[in-house]
Known about the structure:
Mean pLDDT: 95
Number of domains: 1
CATH superfamily: Alpha/Beta hydrolase fold, catalytic domain
CATH architecture: 3-Layer(aba) Sandwich
Strand order of the largest sheet: 1-3-2-4-5-6-7
Helix content: 40-55%
Order of helices and strands: EEHEHEHEHHHHHHHEHHHEHH
CATH topology: Rossmann fold
Radius of gyration: 18 Å
Shape: globular
CATH class: Alpha Beta
Amino acid sequence: MHVAEAGEGPLVLLCHGWPELWYSWRHQLRALADAGFRAVAPDMRGFGRTTAPDDVAAYTILHNVGDMVALVAALGEKRAAIVGHDWGAPVAWHAAQFRPDVFTAVVGMSVPHRKRGRTIPLDTLRKAGKRDYYWLYFQEQAAEDEFARDARFTLRRILTIGSGDTPRERKMSMYVDRAQGFLGASREDYPLPAWLTETDLDVFADEYRRSGFRGGLNWYRNIDRNWELLAPWQNAVITQPALFIAGTRDAVITGAIGQRALEELESVVPNLPGKLLLDGAGHWIQQERPEEVNTALIAFLREHHT
Length: 306
C-alpha cells in the first residue's frame, strides 16, 4: 500500500474515492499536520501505486475496511480517526461501524451513510428499468475501455462535470447513453475549474495511464456482494462522534436516492452534531473548498480525537 504522510500526533486516515488518488487530500495533509495531527492518505486498494488484485471479489467493503485496520497497525498505532470521500466515505462509515475500538471518530464527505436496503441493489435497478444507471454500466468492460482510451481526457471530464461551478448543461448525469458512453460524445476540452490546475490533472492522469481503471471499477462490481456481506449489520448504527460534509451542488445528494439518505442520516449516525453543506460546491468537496473543509475537519478532530 502506497501512502502519503505528514505530521505527528493523533492518527487521521484519509480515504479517497473514484477516480482519485491520495493526491485528492493534498490540501488536507499539510493543514492537519500543522494542526498537530498525523495525517496519512493511502492510495486505496486497486488505485495508484497500491496493489490491484486480479480477482474482482477482492474489492469488497470487508477487504477495504480490513486494509484500513491493517494500515493503523502497520503505522504502529491502535486508534485513528477515519475520513472518507466518495467511495472512501462508505469505507470510513463501515470502518467505524465494524471496529469502534480502532476508529474513534468518523467523517464522511459527499456520500451519506445509509440503511442497508431490503433488496439486492443492482438487481433492483434492473427490475426498475434503470439499466442505464451508471452503476450497471460500470460492471461492463466497455467502461474500462472507454476511460482508458485517453486517461487525461477522462480525468479532466469527470473532475470538471462533478465540479460545483460547472454549468448545469455540462453536469454529470447518473444515466449513460451507451452510444456516447459515460463521458459523452463530445471531445471538447472544457476549461478546468479554478480549484484544479493542469499540473494537478497531470498527477492524476500519469497514474491512471500506468494503472488503468480496472481496480477502481472493481469497487462498483462488488455492490451486490457488499449488500450480502453486510447482512449481519442490518439496522446497526454508528455511535462514534461523526461529521458529514458535502456541496449543495453535489449530484450524489441532490438525486432522489442521495437526498433520502441525507435526510435519514441521523437515524443511522445518531452522534452527528450536524451536516455541513457548502453552498455552491460540487462533488470534489475537499479539493473545491479546502479552507472551509479544513477548518471544519480540524475543529471536529480537536474536539473528538486528541
